[in-house]
Amino acid sequence: MAAASSSSSSSTSVSRVKLLPPRVFVNFRGDELRDNFISHLEKALKDEKVPYFIDNHLVPSDDLEILFKEIEDSKVALAVFSQQYPESKWCLDELVKIMEKVKEDKLKVIPIFFKVKVEDVKHQTGEFGLKLTGRGNRGESNIAKWKNALTSVTAKKGLTSAMYSTERDLIVDIVEAVKQALDKVNQGGEGTILRSINISSESFNGNIFSETIEQPRRDLPGTEQRLKKLEDILFDFKCAQLRIIGIVGMPGIGKTTLAELYFNRWNHELVFNKLILGIREKSKDHGSNWLMNRLLNGQDLNDKADMFTKRILLVLDDVSHKDQVDFLLKNRQRIKGGSKIVITTRDKTSIEELVDDTYVVSGLNVREALQLFNSHAFDDQACCATGNFPNLSKRFVDYAEGNPRVLEELGKE
User: Fold this and answer.
1) Which of 161, 164, 312, 385 has its CA 20 to 30 A from that of 142?
2) Mind spelling out the 3-state secondary structure of the chain?
3) Quick check: is 200 in a domain?
4) Is 65 a catalytic residue?
5) How many domains does the chain have?
6) Is residue 192 a part of any domain in this protein?
């Protein structure tokens, strides 16, 4: 694949990777971000040979339909929200088009909240909301569509700059999320790739690295009871004792869901917060020391490192080998009392020397499993109780053995 370059026509000047159709459309406020954040993002996409479309110098006289066509030709869209974003009717119209294609299941969208709060975008509040309804947009016939698109896009899983100490780390994760999304598309995957994230950017100094496509699901039957059990094992945040807990279970059983929900509920309690997902795959690519380097964030492994000078909340997802967490075992005495570390794994032997206790996630019971299966199998819930449907549902539930992911996939078939 050739490197990205600019190509121009009488109506537009764009950047795109040659030889492949544009696969990632980047929606952003040009005047605000083009010469800084977006230029750095573009370089990262180019370096990773990710095919993309970035409008570099469109002027108001150009035809918006050109951009609509690029959106239609793309498979993934990055919607980069910033302080001046709502001042641009073009950005907002592009977003409406993006969400239309998302609704048709023809496009996947990843929202990026760059120095703006997720809640302000979702509810059009704060400075973001004032600019949306400001003088330049008063009387606009499309404002209802814009608001609906802004609310809808926040229901998709994304990244927020407040979770990162450096712009570089944010861009690394954006590119990785895009690659994951494109891989899913190339494999013919169905359904939403990145879904809602319930983390406010407010007062948050940690970060999220998502190597998985799962979303914390509060609507899964029995979730609240399982979360309560995990909280009991970890003790409350008044406890001065370090607690390291393993969440163990088969793939699809809900380990990641449970860990993410715990993190989302309690990350505000401690200053140093990190949720790192998909450690198995990242360690394959970058070696077993990748996790240690990620947590140290460029600092030396000594008593002055942030992770040893502060109480910490860590969620480490999908650990597959004890080498990945060996540095935690060797440096356990350095970790501040009152810290909480949650590790999910399929193999409890990979963490048994490190953890204080393990929580084995059991499958859903028959009632919970039927509830979940029926919610995915029947548009009209009344149908599940008629004819031979109850017997068929029970057979599927027995086959799934309480595994939520299996139940959902069977229900969708």
Assistant:
1) 161
2) CCCEEEEECCCCEEEEECCCCCCEEEECCHHHHCCCHHHHHHHHHHHCCCCEEEECCCCCCCCHHHHHHHHHHCCEEEEEECCCHHHCHHHHHHHHHHHHHHHCCCCEEEEEECCCCHHHHHHCCHHHHHHHCCHHHCCCCCHHHHHHHHHHHCCCCCEEHHHCCCHHHHHHHHHHHHHHHHHHHHCCCCCCCCCCCCCCCCCCCCEEECCCCCCCCCCCCCHHHHHHHHHHHHCCCCCCCCEEEEEECCCCCCHHHHHHHHHHHHHHHCCEEEEECCHHHHHHHHCCCHHHHHHHCCCCCCCCCHHHHCCEEEEEEEECCHHHHHHHHHCHHHCCCCCEEEEEECCHHHCCCCCCEEEECCCCCHHHHHHHHHHHHCCCHHHHHCCCHHHHHHHHHHHHCCCHHHHHHHHHC
3) no
4) no
5) 3
6) no
182 and 211 part of one domain:
no
Residue 214 backbone phi and psi in degrees, to 5: -85, 155
Is residue 202 one of the residues assigned to a domain? no
CATH number reported for the structural domain that contains residue 315 in this entry: 3.40.50.300
Residues 169 and 249 in one domain: no
Is residue 85 scored above 80 in pLDDT? yes
Q: Is residue 12 domain-shared with residue 102, that is, in the same domain?
A: yes
- The fraction of the chain above a pLDDT of 70, given in percent, is 79
Q: Which domain holds residue 139?
A: 4-186
Per-residue model confidence as pLDDT tens digits over 131-174:
998 766 666 778 999 999 999 999 888 899 887 878 888 998 89
Predicted TM-score (pTM) of the model is 0.51
Single out the catalytic residue among 32, 70, 87, 94: 94
**21 within some domain:** yes
| CATH number reported for the structural domain that contains residue 75 in this entry | 3.40.50.10140
